C-alpha cells in the first residue's frame, strides 16, 4: 500500500504539470483577450500597451514565459499577480478557500445524509408510493439547474426578499471565525440548494446499486443464517452498494473544492469558484491559471483518497 | 456598465473651457434629477450598503478610470478639481484653492493648493504641491499604466522623456509647497485644466508610495493613503470594501458634507437579487449596475421614488465596419439603419425610461446637441422611423445593387457581441433586424472584455458589426464624443475606438478645423455639423442616449452625482441613521 501511495503521489505531480502546461497553452497562446491591452485599461496609446507587454514579459516566447511561471511556482510557490487588481493570486485563492470549504463540507453532509437515506428507503420499499415519490423528487432535483434553483430558493425563503422569510439571503455570508452563528445561518440555503442535485443523484445511484446487491447470493445466505433484515441491509447490502457512491463522493468533493461557481455566484459567497468565474470574464490570465491548478490539485488528490478508501471498503481490493 | 472613455481635447477647446473653469466659483446647490433627493441637509451617521455586481476596476487613483471606481474615488481622494452633485459642465476646486490660472498664451497652468489638507494615517502630514506632481508622474509609468494621462498631459514639457530619459517631468514644477505649475509645448492649457479633475491628480506622498510603485505592477493600491472624508479600511478584492471616516479630514477645507459614518461596498452580487434587496431593504444603493430591465419596470410602477434616471451623457450604437463588403456601400449601411427597430433595442434595457432613441451621436445636454438637430436629428429618412422601415430599407438595398431588396451575396458577416445581459439581448435583437434584409451572420457572443480587446478594438479582426458599443464623456465637450470615434486619423491597430473605421477626408478636415475654434457657440455649431456629416455617412446605428437607472432603499436619502450619473456618497445619507 505504501508503495502504491508513493507511486500515485508522483503521478499527481506529473498530472499537475500537464494541467499547468495545457492551461498555459490554452490561455496564453490562445487568449480570450489581449492581457497587455486589458492591463493598460481604457484608451491607452499603443506605445503604452507595448510597454506593458514588455514589462509583463508577454513579448517573450511562450516557452520562456512558461519556464518563468513554473520556476516561480516550484521555487517560491508564486502563482503570479492578478492583472485585474495587482494582488497575489495565491493570496486571493487562500483568502477565499475557507468559504469554498465551508460551502462544500456542509453541502456534502446534507447530500450524503439525504441521498443515502432516501436511496436505502427507496430500495427497501421498492415500487411503493414512497419509492415513486422519492425517485420523482430525485428526478426534479437532478433536472433543476442550480442557478435557477438558487434564485427560486431566494425568492421563496430569503429573509430579505423571500415570500416566506426563513433563511438568510444572498450576500449574508460571514467567515466562521468572525461569527459562527451567522456563518451557519448564512449557509443553510446554499447548502440545501447545492446538495439538492447531488442528493438526488446519490439517492438514485444507491437505490440502483442496493437493489442489485440485495439480489446477490451472499445476501440470501445472510438471511438464511438468521440475521435480522436491518443488519442484512446495512451491514452487507449497503456496504457493498456504497463503493460506487464513495467514488462519486470523492470526485464530487474534489470538484467542488475547486469552486462551486454557480452556487457561489447566486448567493454571493466569496469562494474560489466565484474567483475563477470573475477571472474568466475579465480575462485575468494569472488568476485563471491559479484557480485551474488549484481545482486540478483537489480533483487529483480526491481521486487518490477515494482509491485508498476503496481498499478499506472492499476487502477484495489490494494495492501493491 | 463599461463605457469607452475620451481622448484629448485640443487647444481651442481649452480656451472655452478655461473661461468656464475661471468663472467657476464653487457652485451652489441646485435641484437634482427626477426621482432623486435635492441636495439638502442630511442626518449624520449610519452605514450605507453599496451593492455591486463586480469589483472595482482599479482602486489606485492613478489607475481609476471607470464610473464605479469614481464612486469610491470621489469620497476618498481629493484631486485638484472635482464634481459636486449638480455640476456636470465645469468642475469645482477640491484640493485646489481656486480655479486654474492660465497664462502665456495658453501654455502655462498654475494652480494654488489649499492649506490644511492632510493625508490619512499612516502618513498624517499636510499635502503639498510635490505630492500632486508625484501623483501625475507615477501615473505615466508602466508600473501604474494610467490610460488617459498621456492623452491629456502629453503636451507638458518633458512628458515624452519620462521615465526612460528623465527622472521627472520637467514641465511640472512646484515653486513652493502650495503651487504647482504645468508648462506646455502647445496652448492646450484648458485641456490640462479639465484633466486635473480626473483622479490621477489626487496627491500621493512619494516618500511613502515609492517602494510600492517600484514593484511591477505597482502595489500602492493595496496600501493607499487618502485625503477625502473617508478612507478605505479594508478591501477584499471582488468581495468587499469598507470606507470609514478619515480622522485627518478637515471639513472646513471641503464642500462635502459626508453624512455617513461608514460605507460598505459589497461586490459579486447577482444584479437582479441585489436590486430586489435594495428595493426591499433600508440602507442599500446600487453601485456599478443600472437596474436590470425587469426591475426598472417593477420599480417604475410600484416604487417610483426609489429609482432615478440620470442622463449619462453617453450614447449607444451598433457600429458598421465601413471597410468590409458589403458594408463599404453607403446604401447598404443606410438600409441597415432604416430597418433597425431601435425601440426593440431600447426594450432590451428596460424601455422608454432608460433613455431617448438616438438620432445622432452627440447626447442631450452637450454643446452641439441642438445644433445637430436635437431629439429629431437632422431629418435623414433612414432614421425617421424608430420602429424600423422595411420598405425604405429595401429601397436602399436596391440602390446598393441588390435588386431584390435583400442581400443575396454569399458572404457571412462577423458580428461580435456581449454574452451577458442586457448586451446579449441587444445583440440578439440586432441579429433579427439584419436577418430581415437577408444578411447571413457569423454571430459570436463573448465576454465583454474579449469583445473589445480581441475583436471590436482590433481592425485586423475584421469584425463587420459590433452591436454593443457606445461612448461616454470625460468632459462636457462634443469633440470628446466625435473625435475618437469617427476621426479617420484616430484609427489605431490596438484599442481602436473608431469602430466603423470611418475615414472620410471631408469629416477629418472638418474636425481638424473645429478643434481650433475657441468660441463656445462656434464650437457647438461646428461639432453639431460634424455630427450631421458623420450621420450622413451612416457608419453606425445610433439607438440610445441612455439614462442610468440607479436604485436606492426607502431608508436612503440618495443624492445623484450628475457628472458620474451615480449616487454621490458624500451627499447621500440615511433617513434614520
Defining traits:
heterodimer; A: 320 residues; mainly alpha; MetI-like fold; globular; B: alpha+beta; 2 domains; 5-stranded mixed beta sheet; 16 helices; disordered N terminus
**How far is it from the N-terminal to the C-terminal residue of chain A, by CA?**
6 Å
Beta content of chain B comes to: 15-25%
Shape descriptor of chain B: globular
Number of strands of chain A: 0
CATH superfamily of the largest domain in chain B: Dipeptide-binding Protein, Domain 3
Large-scale geometry of chain A: globular
Query: What is the oligomeric state here?
Result: heterodimer
The total domain count of chain B is 2
For the record, the CATH architecture of the largest domain in chain B stands as Roll
- The parts of chain B where pLDDT drops under 50 for at least 5 residues are 1-37
The CATH architecture of the largest domain in chain A would be Orthogonal Bundle
H/E series of chain A, N to C? HHHHHHHHHHHHH
CATH topology of the largest domain in chain B: Dipeptide-binding Protein, domain 3
Mean pLDDT over the full residue set of chain B: 89
> Helix/strand-derived class of chain B?
alpha+beta
Q: How far from one another are the termini of chain B?
A: 30 Å
CATH superfamily of the largest domain in chain A: MetI-like
Total number of helical segments of chain A? 13
Strand content of chain A: under 5%
SSE layout and pairing:
The complex is a heterodimer of chains A (320) and B (577).
Chain A: H1 2-29, H2 35-40, H3 46-55, H4 62-76, H5 89-124, H6 129-143, H7 146-157, H8 180-213, H9 217-224, H10 229-257, H11 261-267, H12 272-281, H13 285-313
Chain B: H1 11-23, E1 47-51, H2 67-76, E2 81-82, E3 92-93, E4 101-103, E5 108-112, H3 129-139, H4 149-153, E6 172-176, E7 179-183, H5 189-195, H6 206-213, E8 230-236, E9 240-245, E10 262-266, H7 271-280, E11 284-286, H8 293-302, E12 307-311, E13 314-320, H9 330-339, H10 342-347, E14 355-356, H11 390-399, E15 412-418, H12 423-436, E16 440-446, H13 448-456, E17 465-472, H14 479-486, H15 505-515, H16 520-537, E18 540-551, E19 556-557, E20 560-561, E21 566-567, E22 573-574
Parallel strand pairs in B: 1-10, 1-11, 15-16
Antiparallel strand pairs in B: 2-3, 4-5, 5-7, 6-7, 8-9, 9-10, 12-18, 13-17, 13-18, 14-18, 19-22, 20-21
Helix pairs in contact in B: 1-5, 9-11, 15-16
Amino acid at each position: 500500500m505504501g508503495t502504491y501511495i508513493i507511486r500515485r503521489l508522483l503521478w499527481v505531480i506529473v498530472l499537475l504539470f500537464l494541467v499547468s502546461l495545457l492551461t498555459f497553452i490554452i490561455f496564453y497562446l490562445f487568449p480570450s483577450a489581449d492581457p497587455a491591452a486589458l492591463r493598460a485599461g481604457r484608451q491607452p496609446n499603443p506605445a503604452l500597451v507595448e510597454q506593458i507587454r514588455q514589462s509583463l514579459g508577454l513579448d517573450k516566447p511562450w516557452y520562456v514565459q512558461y519556464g518563468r511561471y513554473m520556476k516561480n511556482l516550484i521555487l517560491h510557490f508564486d502563482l503570479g499577480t492578478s492583472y485585474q487588481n495587482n494582488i497575489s493570486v495565491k493570496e486571493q485563492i487562500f483568502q477565499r478557500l475557507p468559504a469554498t470549504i465551508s460551502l462544500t463540507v456542509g453541502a456534502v453532509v446534507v447530500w450524503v445524509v439525504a441521498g443515502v437515506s432516501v436511496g436505502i428507503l427507496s430500495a427497501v420499499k421498492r415500487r411503493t408510493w414512497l419509492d415513486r415519490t422519492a425517485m420523482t423528487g430525485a428526478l426534479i432535483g437532478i433536472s433543476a439547474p442550480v442557478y435557477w434553483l438558487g434564485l427560486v430558493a431566494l425568492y421563496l425563503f430569503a429573509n430579505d426578499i423571500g415570500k416566506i422569510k426563513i433563511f438568510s439571503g444572498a450576500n449574508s455570508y460571514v467567515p466562521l471565525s468572525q461569527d459562527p452563528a451567522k456563518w451557519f445561518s448564512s449557509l443553510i440555503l446554499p447548502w440545501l440548494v447545492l446538495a439538492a442535485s447531488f442528493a438526488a443523484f446519490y439517492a438514485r445511484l444507491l437505490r440502483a446499486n442496493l437493489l442489485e446487491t440485495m439480489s446477490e447470493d451472499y445476501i440470501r445466505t445472510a438471511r438464511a443464517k438468521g440475521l435480522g433484515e436491518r443488519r442484512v441491509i446495512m451491514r452487507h447490502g449497503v456496504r457493498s452498494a456504497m463503493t460506487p457512491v464513495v467514488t462519486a463522493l470523492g470526485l464530487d468533493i474534489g470538484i467542488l473544492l475547486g469552486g462551486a461557481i454557480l452556487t457561489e455566484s447566486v448567493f454571493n459567497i466569496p469562494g474560489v469558484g466565484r474567483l475563477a468565474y470573475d477571472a474568466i470574464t475579465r480575462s485575468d490570465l494569472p488568476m485563471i491559471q491559479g484557480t485551474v491548478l488549484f481545482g486540478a490539485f483537489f480533483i487529483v488528490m480526491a481521486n487518490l483518497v477515494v482509491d485508498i478508501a476503496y481498499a478499506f471498503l472492499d476487502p477484495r481490493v489490494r494495492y501493491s | 456598465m463599461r463605457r469607452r472613455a475620451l481622448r484629448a481635447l485640443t487647444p481651442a477647446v481649452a480656451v472655452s473651457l478655461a473661461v468656464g473653469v475661471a468663472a467657476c466659483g464653487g457652485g451652489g446647490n441646485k435641484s437634482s434629477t427626477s426621482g432623486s433627493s435635492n441636495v439638502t441637509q442630511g442626518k449624520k451617521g449610519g452605514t450605507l450598503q453599496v451593492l455591486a455586481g463586480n469589483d472595482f476596476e482599479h482602486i489606485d487613483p492613478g489607475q481609476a478610470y471607470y464610473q464605479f471606481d469614481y464612486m469610491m474615488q470621489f469620497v476618498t481622494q481629493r484631486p485638484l478639481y472635482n464634481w459636486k452633485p449638480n455640476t456636470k459642465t465645469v468642475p469645482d476646486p477640491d484640493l485646489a484653492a481656486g480655479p486654474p490660472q492660465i497664462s502665456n498664451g495658453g501654455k502655462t497652468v498654475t494652480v494654488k493648493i489649499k492649506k490644511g489638507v492632510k493625508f490619512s494615517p499612516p502618513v498624517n502630514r499636510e499635502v503639498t504641491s510635490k505630492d500632486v506632481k508625484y501623483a501625475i508622474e507615477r501615473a505615466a509609468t508602466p508600473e501604474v499604466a494610467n490610460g488617459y494621462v498621456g492623452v491629456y498631459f502629453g503636451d507638458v514639457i518633458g512628458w515624452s522623456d519620462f521615465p526612460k530619459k528623465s527622472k521627472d517631468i520637467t514641465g511640472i514644477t512646484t515653486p513652493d509647497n502650495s503651487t504647482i505649475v504645468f508648462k506646455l509645448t502647445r496652448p492646450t492649457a484648458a485641456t490640462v485644466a479639465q484633466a486635473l479633475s480626473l483622479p490621477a491628480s489626487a496627491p500621493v506622498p512619494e516618500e511613502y508610495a515609492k517602494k510600492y510603485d517600484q514593484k511591477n505592477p505597482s502595489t500602492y493600491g493595496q496600501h493607499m493613503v487618502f485625503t477625502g472624508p473617508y478612507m478605505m479600511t479594508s478591501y477584499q478584492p471582488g468581495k468587499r470594501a469598507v470606507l470609514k471616516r478619515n480622522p485627518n479630514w478637515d471639513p472646513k477645507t471641503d464642500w462635502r458634507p459626508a453624512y455617513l459614518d461608514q460605507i460598505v461596498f459589497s461586490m459579486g452580487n447577482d444584479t437582479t437579487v441585489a436590486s430586489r434587496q435594495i428595493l426591499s431593504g433600508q440602507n442599500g444603493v446600487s453601485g456599478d449596475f443600472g437596474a436590470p430591465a425587469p426591475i426598472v419596470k417593477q420599480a417604475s410602477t410600484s416604487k417610483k421614488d426609489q429609482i432615478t434616471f440620470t442622463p449619462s451623457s453617453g450614447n449607444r450604437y451598433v457600429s458598421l465596419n465601413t471597410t468590409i463588403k458589403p458594408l463599404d456601400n453607403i446604401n447598404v449601411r443606410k438600409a441597415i439603419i432604416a430597418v433597425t427597430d431601435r425601440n426593440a433595442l431600447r426594450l432590451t434595457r428596460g424601455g422608454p425610461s432608460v433613455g431617448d432613441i438616438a438620432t445622432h451621436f452627440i447626447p442631450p445636454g452637450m454643446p452641439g446637441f441642438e445644433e445637430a438637430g436635437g431629439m429629431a436629428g437632422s431629418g435623414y429618412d433612414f432614421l425617421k422611423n424608430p420602429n424600423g422601415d422595411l420598405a425604405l430599407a429595401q429601397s436602399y438595398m436596391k440602390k446598393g445593387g441588390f435588386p431584390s431588396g435583400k442581400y443575396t451575396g454569399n458572404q457571412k458577416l462577423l458580428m461580435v457581441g456581449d454574452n451577458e445581459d442586457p448586451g446579449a439581448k441587444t445583440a440578439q435583437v440586432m441579429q433579427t433586424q439584419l436577418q430581415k434584409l437577408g444578411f447571413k451572420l457569423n454571430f459570436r457572443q463573448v465576454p465583454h472584455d474579449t469583445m473589445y480587446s480581441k475583436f471590436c478594438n482590433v481592425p485586423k479582426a475584421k469584425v463587420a458589426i459590433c452591436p454593443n458599443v457606445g461612448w461616454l464623456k470625460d468632459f462636457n465637450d462634443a469633440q470628446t464624443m466625435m473625435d475618437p470615434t469617427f476621426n479617420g486619423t484616430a484609427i489605431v491597430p490596438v484599442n481602436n475606438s473608431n469602430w466603423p473605421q470611418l475615414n472620410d477626408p471631408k469629416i477629418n478636415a472638418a474636425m481638424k478645423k473645429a478643434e481650433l475654434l475657441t468660441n463656445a457657440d462656434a464650437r457647438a455649431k461646428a461639432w453639431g455639423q460634424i455630427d450631421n456629416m458623420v450621420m450622413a455617412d451612416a457608419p453606425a446605428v445610433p439607438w440610445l442616449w441612455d439614462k442610468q437607472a440607479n436604485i436606492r432603499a426607502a431608508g436612503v436619502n440618495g443624492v445623484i452625482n450628475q457628472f458620474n450619473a451615480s449616487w454621490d456618497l458624500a451627499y447621500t445619507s440615511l433617513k434614520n441613521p
